[in-house]
């Protein structure tokens, strides 16, 4: 799907739709409420790190015509390493996304409730059916268009809300360009990065890029998609942090979630702001409710050698299971602490491992002349080091939860 000269929006927009979910909205809202504009630089770093990793994932998909799961299965010859990777992928991507799907559906329901004025118990089921209907069609083009529309909707609503609250532009640019760590902000910085640089997006991007582009010469289109879509997702996060900063920071107000942010915008910017925030939260929840099951199906089908056919039975069974669990969690308001603990540990292990595999794969002979340059390797290893730090922190947080 082309937008203008030389710009092709597609797989990277799916990645942006995936990482701007209700969890990101809440994390960004808390960052702005507690620390003002001071942590905006962390989002700039997150966007750059995401671009580095996702460029490699897209390049792997376009050049080899394989998803990341397929590449692991075919290139990792050691059975112990291969099955270890399978176990991690099932733990982090499949089980983890099943739990997070409940949060996605809850977030989308909160957005609708913000417009209706009440929380209806049937909303998660309706939204789950809507996500399932789109995935059941088995059309990559349809999914791409829907998710592009949702990302554009999020961009307009969150940026419009940000402008309505009249931010402090001096503090905004200072926080954006000058890194700082206010007291007690380290965990929030980690959370902001961790909600943007996520392992399942590597599977989603590689597989979807292989579907959209079949020739290595089309890498320029994949990269233009990347350089437009990922910063657009970052812009949405920046807008949410800044909106919360304008509404809450330094005003002795507390915030526990995006619903509080939506309601508290009314005195600052009137009903329009609350409607826009509710609409943005709905789009964030629905987009992630589609991409989380889709990424899980790509990951599991690829690692087990079942192919990436969107109409295949194994593919459909994977995303149907994840949506079903998500609907149950959202409808019954279940808080599965033990499962979330397991998912956090698995994700903490998976991200650096998958990042290292990407670096290895993009230096493999199968990439031909499209292998990493030394600069790409240097940048990638810096991101891997950050991923290791995030993984250690994620596991530590999970152990504290346990």
From TrEMBL:
<feature type="transmembrane region" description="Helical">
    <location>
        <begin position="272"/>
        <end position="301"/>
    </location>
</feature>
<keyword id="KW-1133">Transmembrane helix</keyword>
<dbReference type="GO" id="GO:0015086">
    <property type="term" value="F:cadmium ion transmembrane transporter activity"/>
</dbReference>
<keyword id="KW-0813">Transport</keyword>
<keyword id="KW-0472">Membrane</keyword>
<protein>
    <submittedName>
        <fullName>Manganese transporter</fullName>
    </submittedName>
</protein>
<dbReference type="GO" id="GO:0034755">
    <property type="term" value="P:iron ion transmembrane transport"/>
</dbReference>
<keyword id="KW-0769">Symport</keyword>
<feature type="transmembrane region" description="Helical">
    <location>
        <begin position="340"/>
        <end position="362"/>
    </location>
</feature>
<feature type="transmembrane region" description="Helical">
    <location>
        <begin position="120"/>
        <end position="139"/>
    </location>
</feature>
<feature type="transmembrane region" description="Helical">
    <location>
        <begin position="146"/>
        <end position="165"/>
    </location>
</feature>
<dbReference type="InterPro" id="IPR001046">
    <property type="entry name" value="NRAMP_fam"/>
</dbReference>
<feature type="transmembrane region" description="Helical">
    <location>
        <begin position="185"/>
        <end position="205"/>
    </location>
</feature>
<feature type="transmembrane region" description="Helical">
    <location>
        <begin position="226"/>
        <end position="252"/>
    </location>
</feature>
<dbReference type="GO" id="GO:0005384">
    <property type="term" value="F:manganese ion transmembrane transporter activity"/>
</dbReference>
<feature type="transmembrane region" description="Helical">
    <location>
        <begin position="378"/>
        <end position="399"/>
    </location>
</feature>
<dbReference type="Pfam" id="PF01566">
    <property type="entry name" value="Nramp"/>
</dbReference>
<dbReference type="GO" id="GO:0015293">
    <property type="term" value="F:symporter activity"/>
</dbReference>
<feature type="transmembrane region" description="Helical">
    <location>
        <begin position="79"/>
        <end position="100"/>
    </location>
</feature>
<feature type="transmembrane region" description="Helical">
    <location>
        <begin position="37"/>
        <end position="58"/>
    </location>
</feature>
<feature type="transmembrane region" description="Helical">
    <location>
        <begin position="313"/>
        <end position="334"/>
    </location>
</feature>
<keyword id="KW-0812">Transmembrane</keyword>
<dbReference type="GO" id="GO:0005886">
    <property type="term" value="C:plasma membrane"/>
</dbReference>
């Amino acid at each position: 799907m082309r937008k203008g000269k030389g710009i092709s929006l597609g797989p990277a927009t799916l990645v942006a739709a995936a990482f701007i979910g209700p969890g990101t909205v809440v994390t960004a809202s808390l960052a702005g409420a507690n620390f003002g504009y001071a942590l905006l630089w962390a989002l700039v770093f997150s966007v750059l790190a995401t671009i580095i990793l996702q460029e490699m994932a897209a390049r792997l998909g376009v050049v080899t015509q394989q998803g990341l799961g397929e590449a692991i299965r075919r290139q990792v010859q050691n059975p112990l390493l291969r099955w270890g990777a399978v176990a991690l992928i099932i733990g982090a991507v499949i089980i983890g996304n099943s739990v997070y799907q409940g949060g996605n559906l809850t977030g989308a329901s909160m957005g609708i409730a913000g417009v209706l004025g009440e929380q209806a118990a049937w909303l998660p089921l309706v939204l789950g059916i809507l996500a399932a209907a789109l995935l059941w069609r088995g059309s990559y083009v349809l999914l791409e268009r829907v998710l592009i529309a949702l990302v554009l909707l999020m961009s307009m609503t969150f940026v419009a809300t940000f402008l309505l609250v009249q931010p402090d532009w001096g503090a905004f640019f200072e926080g954006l360009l000058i890194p700082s760590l206010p007291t007690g902000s380290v965990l929030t910085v980690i959370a902001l990065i961790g909600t943007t640089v996520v392992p399942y997006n590597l599977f989603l991007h590689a597989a979807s890029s292989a579907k959209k582009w079949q020739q290595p010469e089309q890498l320029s289109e994949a990269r233009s998609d990347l350089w437009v879509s990922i910063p657009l997702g970052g812009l949405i996060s920046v807008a949410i942090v800044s909106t919360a900063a304008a509404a809450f920071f330094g005003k002795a107000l507390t915030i526990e979630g995006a619903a509080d942010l939506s309601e508290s915008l009314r005195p600052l910017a009137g009903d329009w702001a609350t409607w826009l925030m509710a609409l943005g939260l709905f789009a964030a929840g629905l987009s992630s409710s589609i991409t989380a099951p889709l990424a899980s199906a790509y990951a599991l089908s690829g690692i087990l050698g079942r192919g990436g056919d969107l109409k295949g039975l194994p593919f459909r069974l994977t995303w149907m299971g994840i949506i079903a669990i998500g609907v149950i969690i959202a409808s019954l308001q279940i808080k599965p602490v033990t499962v979330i603990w397991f998912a956090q540990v698995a994700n903490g292990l998976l991200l650096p491992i998958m990042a290292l595999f990407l670096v290895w794969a993009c230096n493999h002979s199968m990439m031909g002349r499209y292998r990493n340059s030394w600069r790409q390797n240097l940048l990638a290893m810096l991101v891997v080091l950050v991923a290791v730090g995030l993984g250690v922190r994620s596991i530590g947080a999970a152990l504290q939860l346990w």
